[in-house]
Structures are given as C-alpha cells and as structure tokens.
Amino acid sequence: MAERIGIVCTGTGWTAPPRTAAALTRCGADVCVVAPPGSYAALTRFKAADIVMRPDELFRVMPSVLRTLAEDFGAHTVLPGDDLAFAGLAKFVERMDKLAISETTRTMMVRSMPAAPAARLLACDSDFIIAQQHRRPCPAPPSVANPDLSEAEAFALAHGYPVVVKRDGFAAGYGVTICRDRDALAQALAQAPAHPRNATFVVQKFVPGTVYGATVSGVYGRPLAGFSFVKHQCSTENGATSVALHDHRDDIVQHAFALFAEYGLNGFSGFDYIVDPDGNAFFIEINPRLMPTGHLTCFGVDLSAAFVAALSGQASPPPPPRTHEYAALFPNEWARDTESPYLRAALHDVPWHDPPVLAAMIDRSLARATR
C-alpha cells in the first residue's frame, strides 16, 4: 500500500506544495492536499484527495481536518506547506493534550511535528534567531529582539550601519528592511509593532556576502538528505530565489542537519545563510515547511525519494545523477526577466506535467506584471 501524506497550506501562491505533491507522487506516495480555493495546491493534479477551504475556516475546524487526514485518508504524516500552516499546526500541537482527539490523530501529529516547546519556538522567527546567536559553527549575526528606537540606535552604533530590521510573519524577503541610517531605522521600527510577551521583530547586524540556502528532508528529527546552493538570482531584492546555483558547503549542510535533528523536524525544511567575504557562514533563517527547491533532483539529491523510503522503512535509494549546476525556478525567473539566459541554459522547472498549476502561474505572473 502506498504511503499516504497530507499537505496543509493556507496561501494561494505558494509553489512548493504542488511541486512537492508531484515529487511525492512520483515516488509512489498518495497525497491529500488541504488548501484554499484557487491556490496552486488546490489546482494540482498530483493528489489522491483534497480538502478545499479558506484559511479562516481551516483554523476554526483544524481538529476535524486533522482527524479526517488521520482516520479517513489514513495519512502517515502531515507536512506544512507554508509558514502560516506551520504556525497553525504548532498551535494545535501545543493544545493537543487538552483536546478530545483520537489516538490515531495524536499519533499522526506526533510523527509530523516537533514537540510543543520546539514547535512554539520555530513558529516565532525572532525568538528562534535570538536563540542561535552563540551557536558554533554558523552563528546567527548579533541581534536584539523588539528594541525601541533608543535601544535600536545603541545597537546600530555598537555594530555599525547598515542594520537589518526583520519582522515575523513574512516570507520571500518581505518584512526585511536594510537600514543605512537613523531615519531609515526609525521608519522601519514604526512599521514593526512589538508584542508584550513575544519577540515579533529583530534588529540584526548586517553581514555582507553571498546568500546561501540549504534544503533538507528527513523523518522525526533524523535528517536523510540535503543540498546547499547559492541564491544566484532572486525575484526581488532580498526575495525568493529565482535561480539556484548548486554549491556544496559541508559546514552549511551539516549545520542544517544539526538543526533538523535538534528541533525534531519532519518532512522538508529550508535554512538560509550569509557567507561573508572571509568565507564564514552565518545562519539567518529557518523555514520548517515545504521549500520551492525541495522537488529538485538536478543537484544529485532526491529529497522526496529519501523521505518516502524512510516512511516505508526502506533504505534511501541511490542518488540521481547531477545534471545541472543552475536551476531556474518557475515562475520566479521568468517573471523577473523573460529574456534571462538561465531560462535556456539552466534546468527550467516549468510544471508542464501539471497543466492547471502551470496555467495559474502564468496568469498570475502576467497579472502582476501589468499592474
């Protein structure tokens, strides 16, 4: 019997859920997608079942949805498809002992998510990055959580401008502001309200250098496969990767594996780094969810095959051949530059095999371009 996997997402424009659903299906798994109407995830043909509902409705009936995945669909595990989905599942895990849920549902969630304290920390970008400042190797850059303007100015004076203001709850470079002087810092802080109990933003030392990513798959805190890459082109400044350049760095991959293990992650996760001009790597972000690079096999790693094999109790299959140095991610690179040479020379991952998703990606990219 095929392994059964749930994917839960809340956003309409996330490319990773349908790409991962296709990759998992290729590896013999059956996928049930929980997603909003009109989302890429809801449109994919690579699903054995789906539950289509708005995010507000999903959060209201989350216990029932998870029960349906566990008992009716028979999902072995549930994967968060975006940041808000992870936060919602983390909240469920925190409340799980107080809820009247079946043992089947509880077992599925224990397999799917980190334990409650780790899930709570991972759901808060700022708290997590503060906790990583003194880790070696690959420490996070010096950071301060929720400073007022005077505290932020003191931090900037101590570390030098520019500094970075990073707000929680954003992805693809949104919520990140590089501040080169006091006025820019004051303006960024005005848009980053503090919470009395939780860190909701950080001011961080700016580290110049090359941005790297690492994408990892594994089960129950056991990393199985991963690769690192340079974010060679991005769709916007500080934004989502549009061209990935394979570049294996053992320190980055091992650091990502260590975090995956330490925090009991499951499924797929992404990790971002800055490598400074001296070659030192600094950890800047974790994304405990499906990643837009997670379906790639051109770098000689098949994350989905390793994951499905482990769920089945089998050894990981031999790695695929490495076929490309560059991968141009669709629709990001096409939307960034329709004349990009990477659309011809690199692996171009257009989802020809998933026509409804491809059509929606083209329509939405063209609509954004004409605004």
Give the key terms.
globular, Rossmann fold, Dna Ligase, domain 1, alpha/beta, four-stranded parallel sheet, 23% strand, 371 residues
Task: Compose a concise summary of this entry.
The protein is an alpha/beta fold and 371 residues long. The protein has 15 helices and 15 strands.
Tell me about this structure.
This protein is an alpha/beta fold. Among the domains are: 4-122, Rossmann fold, CATH 3.40.50.20; 142-205, 2-Layer Sandwich (Dna Ligase, domain 1), CATH 3.30.1490. It contains 15 helices and 15 strands. A 7-stranded mixed sheet has the order 13-12-9-10-11-14-15. A 4-stranded parallel sheet has the order 3-2-1-4, sandwiched between helices. Helix 4 (62-73) crosses helix 6 (103-112) and helix 5 packs antiparallel against helix 7 (116-122). The protein is globular. The N and C termini lie far apart (48 Å). The model has no long low-confidence stretch (mean pLDDT 94).
